[in-house]
Amino acid sequence: MQGHYNVLFVCTGNSARSILAEATVHHFGRGRFRGYSAGSQPKGFIYPQALDVLKAVDLPIDGLRSKSWAEFTTPGAPVMDFVITVCDQVADEVCPAWPGAPITAHWDIPDPAKAQGDEATVYKAFVLARNLLQQRISLLLNLNVTTLDRLALSSRLDAIGKAPSDDTAG
């Protein structure tokens, strides 16, 4: 593997976590990594709090939309190098046969859309999801992809998903 890498983040609804991950990789990947997102059962909307927490750290939100993973299995779709599930529900589903046989991993991120409480509490859940994803994505972007074989890359991606995280939402 060398050069430019496509990363698809998959969740069930493609309305929060996978969207946060797409925007983060797309921005911090600096042309080396390109972020995408999709859902097995897309909601057709993005939670406003997801967009708000991206804007709060100056991440672009243009072009983000809730979409089906089927878009990435059709002829002419970008071929993925990595597919990362970010919720337990979709990790247990039968995923499509991704063109190009990408390296896959699972990173469990708590669903901010399930947060209950006042507006501040819900917002804090979205900030936590963004921060957890940003920490893990930073580790991904710093991998020396060209020097690792598929097995080593798969192992590293799995380890990133299991890495202890900072539970603060600051």
UniProtKB/TrEMBL annotation:
Query: Does this UniProt record's set of keywords contain Plastid?
Result: no
Domain of life, per UniProt, equals Bacteria
Which keywords does this Swiss-Prot/TrEMBL entry list?
Answer: Arsenical resistance
GO BP terms: response to arsenic-containing substance
Q: Which SUPFAM superfamilies match?
A: Phosphotyrosine protein phosphatases I
Q: Which residues form the Phosphotyrosine protein phosphatase I domain?
A: 5-143
Q: What Pfam families does UniProt report for this protein, alphabetically?
A: LMWPc
Name recorded for this polypeptide = Low molecular weight phosphotyrosine protein phosphatase
Q: Could you tell me which species this protein originates from?
A: Rhodanobacter fulvus Jip2
